[in-house]
Each structure stands twice: as structure tokens, then as C-alpha cells.
Amino acid sequence: MYGEAQISGDSDRTAFRRAEKKYKLYQTSLGRRKSLKPVDLSEVFDFRAILESYNRNGGTPDGIVRHQCGFDLPVFGFEDRPGFYFIPGALSVEEQCHWIKESLLTFPQPPNRTNHTAIYGPMHDLFIEAQKKRVLIEADSLDVDVGFTTDFDSINAIANAPKWQFCEEGSKVPKDGSCKSISACSLLRKLRWSTLGLQFDWSKRNYDVSLPHNKFPENLHQLAKRMAVPAMYEKEEFHPEAAIVNYFGSGDMLGGHLDDMEADWSKPIVSMSLGCKAIFLLGGNSREDLPVAMFLRSGDIVLMAGQARECFHGVPRIFTDEENAEISPLVSQLSCQDDLCFLNYIRTSRININIRQVF
Ligand SMILES: O=C(O)CCC(=O)C(=O)O
């Protein structure tokens, strides 16, 4: 699903692919100068502008509806796309900062799995290790003398020791080039997803309830339950059981896909955007259906329920340049010394937390 922006042979076979191609990042190099291919954003819906105009004159553009659902924030949608709800600026800047920190410090912690787990095993404190500029080293390469022992506890400890360990750069490593290592900074840049609550098995594309997992975080549960209300039938409650946290860097995209692994599609997916602005594509049941494009900004929440659950969707573009990322409230909020590490990350990144009821 993930991919760097690249042109592939069949890239314009379907309407969805054509839209992805239209919006994704193309960098051209002229000598040493890199420039971005200009992109036509005139057809991208901007729900923040729609909200501002609604607040001024009570109207919405053709094709856009304001859902009258008694929710305490304005909720918009498309006339011809039932089940899709857009809540612009749903999260305060403080809430956004809180979830950015959680997404970097807490959510990737074992037993939650990340895209790194299959290669390196459970990995603790990646964000902190990256700030310390430490390096992940294959334990076999470390110059640790375990000696000879008949003590079964020691033998078990050695057998169960993590295969990869974070170390100071340059420490204890043989100098013969045999050592496998990767910097924590580089791993952080390559962090693509982590999973909360019930763990999603990407290879089998289903939830593997046998995998060890923590209870779904209570404060995220409460937030998602509150935000899901516009998409819920009366007297029903949303029970979040799992979430996928997506991490995007410059040039990353999330290809068109369906979220179809949950049992009950009447229940919404609650999807929160944090950090740099992105373009979201909402298509139809087939990749042949022409998708609509819209901006997603930090603090926006999208709900996809019912018919919208059966629609292809994806994120072809994030904007990491200062002018277009639109993260100035986060820049002000995260400017104290202790928060600069989060600011440095989010200046060129986007995080999406999408929360699901699985059963
Ligand atoms: O990043 C987003 O806004 C959408 C994420 C998504 O579609 C997914 O994880 O299934």
C-alpha cells in the first residue's frame, strides 16, 4: 500500500490511478537544483474554507451538505457520497500536540507492532533513541563475551536476548565491516505504521487476536467514541478496538485501498490527521470511479461509515514545505526546548490515526 512517489507502467489505467498521479509529488532535478512539478489544486475541496464561508453566510457550495446531526461541531459531507463525514478542525492545537507525542513515544512501543517489527523484532523507545543519535546493531555483531556457562537462566537469557540492540554510535562493534547496523534516526524516518489494540496482520490482511496486545488506550477510546457520533445510529455506541497509526514523510503516499477487514461496516472508521497538510482521495466501489480530492489538515477528523466503507480511498500527497504544510499553530505550541524534538519531526511529517471497531 505504501510507496514512494514513482511513475509505474500502469499508472494511469484507472480513474483512481490517474487522480493519484495528478496529485503526487514529482521532483525534477536540473543539475543540482531540485524543483517540484507544479500541481493543479483547483479541484481539491477545502473544508476549512467551506466552514469559514458557512459561518459567514450559512451556505455550502454545490454538492456539499452540512449534516444536521446535532453534533457540537459543524460536520460536512458530499451530497452523492453517503456515509462520509468531514469535521474540520475537530481537535484543538493542544489535543493535536498530545496525539503527536503519543504517536511517537507510546504507540510504537511493544507489544504494538510496527513495520520494523518483522525485521528487527520488538523495538523499544525508537523516538528517544533517535534523539540520542543511537544505532541499532545486530546483537551477534556486538563484542560481548558470554563465556561458557551451565547456568540455565543465563543460557535462556542469551537465547531470548533481543537480536538487535540500540547502542552508542561506534561502541563495541567489530571494525571488520561484518556488523549490521542502522541508525535510530533512519529507522524513525522509515517508521510507516504502528498498530494499537487488536493487532492487524498485514501479510494475512486480518486482525490476529492471538498476537499479544494492550487494551485500546482509554483516552483515545473516549475521543473516538465522541467523534464517531455523527456517523452512528441513534442509541448505538462506537467501541474502538484497534487503530492503525500511519506515519508519512515527504514523498510518501498511501495508495488507493479499501478498509474491509472489520466485521460490521455500518460502524465508522474515525480518522484523525496530525501535522503536515495532505490530499485525500475518496473514490467509489471500483477504482474506475472518479475520486473527489480534499485537503486534510492537522486537527481534521474524517468518518467513513456505511456505503463510504466500501469506497476506495488513499493519500497521494503530503505537503512538507513551509508554505503549504500549514502547521503554524503546531510550530508555536511546540516551540519550547523540551518539545523541539517533536516539532522537528512534525515539520516534515504527517501522522494519521484511524480507529476501528473490529467486531
Ligand atoms: O492517512 C489517512 O488520512 C488515511 C489512512 C487510511 O486510509 C488507512 O490507514 O486505511
Would you give an account of this structure?
By secondary structure, the protein is an alpha+beta fold. The chain has two domains: 13-28 and 42-112 and 191-356, Jelly Rolls; 117-187, no CATH class. The chain has eleven helices and 21 strands. The chain has helices at residues 15-23, 47-57, 93-105, 117-120, 126-131, 152-160, 184-189, 218-227, 322-325, 328-333, 340-346, and strands spanning 2-4, 27-30, 33-36, 44-45, 64-66, 76-78, 84-87, 135-138, 164-167, 181-183, 193-197, 200-201, 206-207, 242-249, 252-257, 269-275, 278-282, 292-296, 301-304, 313-318, 349-356. The chain has a six-stranded mixed β-sheet with strand order 1-15-20-17-18-4, covered by helices on one side. Strand 2 and strand 3 (33-36) form a beta hairpin. The radius of gyration is 22 Å and the shape is globular. The two termini are 24 Å apart. Residues 244, 246, 254, 259, 271, 273, 280, 296, 313, 315, 352, 354 line the site of 2-oxoglutaric acid. Keywords: Dioxygenase, Iron, Metal-binding, Oxidoreductase. GO terms for molecular function: broad specificity oxidative DNA demethylase activity; ferrous iron binding; oxidative RNA demethylase activity. Residues 239-359 form the Fe2OG dioxygenase domain. InterPro entries: Alkb (IPR004574), AlkB-like (IPR027450), AlkB-like_sf (IPR037151), Oxoglu/Fe-dep_dioxygenase_dom (IPR005123). This is Fe2OG dioxygenase domain-containing protein.
